[in-house]
Amino acid sequence: CASRRSCVGGPGQGQIHGQARPRTEERPAPGSRSAALYVHWPYCEKRCSYCNFNKYIPRGLDEDAMQRCLVKETTTLLKLSGVQRIDSVFFGGGTPSLASPHTVATVLEAIAQTTHLPAKAEVTLEANPTSSQASRLAAFQGAGINRLSIGVQSLDDTELQLLGRTHSVSEALRTLEEAWRLFPGRTSVDLMFGLPAQQVEPWLRQLQELLSLCDDHISLYHLTLERGTLLFAQVQQGTLPSPDPEAAAEMYQDGREVLREAGFRQYEVSNFARNEALSTHNWTYWQGGQYIGVGPGAHGRFVPQGDGGSFREARIQTLEPDNWMKEVLMFGHGTRKRVSLSELELLEEVLALGLRTDIGITHQHWLYFEPHLSLWDVFGESEEVRELQSQGLLLLDHSGLRCSWEGLAVLDTILLRLLLQLQNAWKNRPPPTFKVTESGAASQSGDSCFRYSLD
């Protein structure tokens, strides 16, 4: 994959056949009339040793057919969602820089013809250095891309080989230089840490070197050994040593310090920006906004208003590209599974995602999703919260609920305790009446969480 990120009929579209950058400290949660849009390009030159994303090595790829299906599903899901504006578009994968600029331009044109796509909307492309030569990057810019996310991952050729990356350090540096020239202030780079046998000081030197070359956005990703990957098997078999968790924790802490001293704001657990170069698209995820997933295996979260729906749904598209294309041609989209989110499930997502950011969850933002149970109601009398506050890890005040800088580093531990507190508060709240919130959550009156799936 180009980076460590990725997110995603019948007689009627709702049936199932056979997931501009923020300029202020808080942006209102996108309402039911706007959304972000993610496009998944499932193909790669080869499979990296650590990656378990939905990706395929193409054999005789018919890009025109894939392009037509991406356009068709984009149009179908946009109409189904009923959104009037797309705030951002993200081409992820896989390695979307392997797609032709014409495919990117055609998808963007389909979006603009179906709904409003502002001229200054953020449009990001994940790029791999081996498929991002200068002329190609310029062509993507001409197609409508205005932001790049470059999967550098390491500035050590031995580590790149370990990860199964197809580029070298010199290729990565050339790509960064060209990207900076074409997309000043709009280029993000990824750096991984916590690799087998990786040492703290050499990794910090990589980060310092990257700082001298990069633009205004850096993502630091901790390697996760995923079952089914080559790297997982090598560690299990003893061919490679297990990553050292203490060394990884030190890399993360020291890396945060280095970036803070360089003027970067840690606006999310893994993401750092200066000069307000936050990712608008990812910010939508973390603020609990709607997003539409297009392409094989893409995830989405939106209310299917165009089909008369009132509840927000978690949706996933068919994984395998050939099957997905057949379903798109037959039904207009390849949605394989959709689950209506209950109000509690939506609140759990708002809590888990919002606390990943440095601003956390404001009172106003929380009340947008749950107007009858405030943050004070849920957490104000909690001994757990008081303990976390006394440890300097969590803040609950007039602004809202958020982790401290120290707390962001141990969010997983904090979140488990807060989710349990939310569930208990929800269980003990006054009996609700059936309603649909403005955010598109189904209430918990009776068993209002209905599910559709095709296994």
From TrEMBL:
InterPro entries per record: Aldolase_TIM, Coproporphyrinogen-III_oxidase, Elp3/MiaA/NifB-like_rSAM, HemN_C, HemW-like, rSAM, rSAM_sf
Cellular component terms (Gene Ontology): mitochondrion
SUPFAM superfamilies associated with the record: Radical SAM enzymes
Annotated spans, Disordered: 1-32
Domain of life: Eukaryota
Keyword Mitochondrion listed: yes
Cell location: Mitochondrion
This protein's record includes keyword Cytoplasm: no
Membership in a protein family: Belongs to the anaerobic coproporphyrinogen-III oxidase family. HemW subfamily.
Xref: NCBIfam families: hemN_rel
Name of the protein described by the UniProt record: Radical S-adenosyl methionine domain-containing protein
Organism: Vombatus ursinus (Common wombat)
Upper classification of the organism: Eukaryota, Metazoa, Chordata, Craniata, Vertebrata
Name of encoding gene: RSAD1
